[in-house]
Give the backbone structure.
Amino acid sequence: MSPPALLRLMRETDLPAVLRLQAACYHELEPESQATLESKRAASTRSCWVAERDGQALAYLFTLPWRFDAPPALDARCEGLPLAPDTLYVHDLAIAPEARGQGIGERLVEAALAFGRAEGLERSSLIAVQGAQRYWCRHGYRPLDPLSATIAARLESYPSGACYMWRTL
């Protein structure tokens, strides 16, 4: 049995590994650029993580304190965090295919939710893609219905079938 993965905050030097994981995991959408991902990491250095074992990145998670009613569009650079965030936005979670089933995703999600609670946020939200709604439902998220016009417009930058979801913290 492999030793547990180490969770740590993401560094700029992790981005090449993050891009490799992203390419291995996303097949229904154009991967976000390194510049976009770095802008998100730099905007919220306390809420983006990497899981690694023996120096190899196995998974990553980007989250941002954000506005519930205005999720970021896909591949949109982050120019800074909102002044009054009201949700922990889970932007991207990817787990290497060979590392799935080891509880790494659950540990990353729990770290993020703990961060959101510590920040005084009352809820978390995300846009599920590639049929990931079932995964996120297991973590207490549920689809938002009905969608506001702003949220519906943001979903247009994602592949069809994208689903805006939320949960309380």
Remarks:
- Strands lie at 6-9, 48-53, 56-66, 87-95, 123-128, 142-143, 163-168.
- The longest strand covers residues 56-66.
- The helical segments are 15-25, 34-43, 104-118, 133-137, 149-155.
